[in-house]
């Protein structure tokens, strides 16, 4: 069992407790290490230990949630993922049609239902929670999938070679599993925020139900719009039932970022996390993936997205005259304080040899100038050069639940000033924003946000909810699913990877400390007397992997990672060809 290794240390203290229990057990008990059916399913400790194997279904740290948004409309990155690269995704290259984890869960459920342990329903709730997660991921990826709720024998041809079930029927079963979990899991909260509790199940239900509601509403080809509101209602109901959480608040200029640097997750806002440990040598690669110039995707925010961060007075930045040509050092001033806690801005420092050092955006590490710091330690070594981050890996937090609820209420046309104040207003207040935007529903749609979503949304309230979802949750792994559920896949391809505005070729001070940090040039690389300055060649070129300026010798930084391709068939992955050959009854998804 990989319960204690690498990416999933969700129950370290639990495992220690079980080992202690085993070492002091009654001599008449069946020894747990015999791994007999009776030893596992005949005692609560056996059920608890077995249930630990399901945690491998949660997002790990080797491919952390902080990487998922690299494939979205918010981020410029190195290269193009196979999902979007031209002709890269096909039935031959597709993957993910694996059912091993489901068999493990179903085997546990079958045997636990026959157990005489008095607390077995709690563990059945945990198992069915994970089965819901398993199927939610499969439906998102493949659409129609076989529904299997038992262990399959090698001679069970009906199950092994059966057809797929309609995705909407599967999601009804997912909802039933989630409701069972919420009703039967007895652990309401967990001081380590690393175990599945009733509140965790409720929070995940808000995420899953919101996805399903939006899919039914916006994927109109399936004619399920009439059923969408039922799922939006489930979001609101479950969000209202969650207790014991609030937004983490210290001071507005640091509270947001603190969440992502804590070695032990803040329990006021964090609902579920993976606890990392230097002593156990269990790490993530956050610093290395965001900062290394050679490792990973080298993600940077786009200017198109950064423009959506409000001014501190609650007005849109894009309502300012001349915002399009505002240099970086000026555009980041007096903005939503989450911006300076998400990217490097004027007063950002890093620690070198124990001393703070001013650290402007580094164009040897960023493509757009909007260089992320959200998950990154400020100490450079060894975190930048090795995968050594041991800050808690947050999977679910209260802010997302508030955003899920706000979106559902708006879609149901039930958002009120009071609900706005407690959801969007609360998030903005934490970010230092002031004004009527904290307590009053917006009445006029921001034209920039209408354009941002390609005219898909025009409701003033919904546009502000979606603005908030982007700024609050960026680099937490939700954006690609958001684009898919809203049926906005075209933004994967059409969004420009643009960066800061450059008035002309030459040297620039990016953080206002009086020292130039970057030199944009064309042709022959110039010389400079400024130590450590980054040189960026913006000579005209159509080559992949080059930075240009949008107007030749001035304009926005434009990054070209390579050609991206979107087609609506990509809302679902193709069934992998080897699996379809083994079972022709699976068929194939449309367009593949």
From TrEMBL:
Residues 298-592 form the RagB/SusD domain. It comes from the Bacteria. Residues 1-25 form the signal peptide. Its main location: membrane. Keywords: Cell outer membrane, Membrane, Signal. The keyword Signal applies. GO terms for cellular component: cell outer membrane. It is found in: Cell outer membrane. The keyword Signal applies. Coiled coil: none annotated. Residues 109-210 form the SusD-like N-terminal domain. Belongs to the SusD family. This is Putative outer membrane starch-binding protein.
């Amino acid at each position: 069992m990989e319960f204690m290794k690498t990416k999933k240390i969700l129950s370290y203290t639990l495992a220690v407790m079980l080992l202690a229990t085993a070492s002091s057990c009654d001599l008449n008990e069946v020894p747990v290490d015999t791994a007999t059916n009776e030893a596992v399913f005949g005692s609560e400790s056996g059920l608890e230990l077995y249930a630990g194997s399901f945690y491998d279904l949660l997002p790990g740290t080797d491919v952390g949630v902080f990487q998922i948004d690299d494939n979205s409309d918010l981020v410029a990155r190195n290269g193009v993922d196979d999902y979007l690269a031209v002709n890269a995704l096909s039935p031959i290259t597709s993957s993910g049609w694996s059912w091993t984890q489901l068999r493990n869960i179903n085997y546990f459920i079958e045997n636990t239902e026959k157990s005489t342990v008095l607390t077995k329903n709690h563990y059945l709730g945990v198992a069915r929670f994970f089965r819901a997660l398993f199927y939610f991921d499969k439906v998102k990826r493949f659409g129609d999938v076989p529904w299997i709720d038992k262990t399959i024998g090698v001679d069970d041809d009906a199950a092994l070679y059966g057809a797929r079930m309609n995705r909407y029927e599967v999601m009804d079963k997912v909802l039933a599993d989630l409701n069972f979990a919420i009703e039967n899991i007895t652990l309401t909260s967990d001081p380590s925020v690393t175990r599945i509790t009733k509140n965790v199940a409720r929070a995940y239900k808000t995420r899953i139900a919101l996805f399903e509601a939006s899919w039914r509403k916006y994927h109109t080809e399936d004619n399920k719009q009439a059923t969408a509101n039922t799922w939006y209602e489930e979001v609101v109901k479950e969000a209202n039932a969650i207790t014991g959480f609030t937004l983490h608040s210290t001071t507005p200029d640091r509270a947001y970022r603190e969440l992502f640097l804590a070695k032990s997750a803040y329990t006021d806002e964090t609902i579920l996390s993976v606890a990392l440990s230097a002593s156990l040598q269990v790490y993530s690669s956050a610093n290395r993936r965001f900062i290394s110039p050679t490792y990973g995707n080298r993600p940077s925010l786009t200017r198109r997205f950064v423009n959506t961060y409000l001014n501190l007075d609650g007005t849109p930045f894009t309502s300012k005259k001349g915002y399009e040509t505002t240099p970086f050092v000026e555009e980041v001033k007096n903005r939503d304080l989450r911006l300076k806690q998400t990217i490097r801005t004027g007063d950002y420092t890093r620690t070198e040899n124990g001393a703070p050092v001013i650290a402007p955006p580094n164009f040897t590490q960023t493509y757009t100038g909007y260089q992320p710091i959200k998950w990154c330690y400020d100490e450079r070594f060894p975190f930048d050069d090795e995968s050594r981050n041991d800050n808690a890996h947050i999977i679910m937090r209260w802010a997302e639940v508030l955003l899920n609820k706000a979106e559902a209420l708006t879609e149901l046309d039930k958002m009120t000033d009071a609900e706005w104040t407690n959801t969007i207003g609360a998030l903005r207040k934490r970010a230092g924003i002031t004004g009527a935007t904290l307590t009053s529903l917006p009445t006029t749609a921001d034209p920039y946000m209408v354009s941002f979503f390609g005219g898909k949304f025009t409701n003033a309230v919904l546009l502000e909810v979606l603005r908030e979802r982007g700024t609050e949750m960026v680099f937490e792994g939700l954006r690609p699913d958001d684009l898919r559920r809203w049926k906005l896949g075209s933004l994967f391809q059409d969004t420009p990877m643009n960066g800061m505005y450059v008035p002309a070729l030459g040297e620039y001070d990016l953080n206002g400390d009086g020292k130039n940090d970057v030199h944009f040039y064309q042709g022959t690389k110039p010389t400079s007397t400024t130590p450590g300055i980054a040189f960026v060649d913006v000579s005209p070129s159509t080559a992949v992997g080059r930075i240009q300026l949008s107007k030749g010798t001035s304009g926005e930084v434009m990054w070209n990672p390579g050609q991206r391709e979107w087609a609506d068939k990509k809302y679902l992955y193709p069934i992998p060809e080897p699996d379809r050959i083994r079972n022709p009854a699976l068929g194939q998804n449309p367009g593949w």
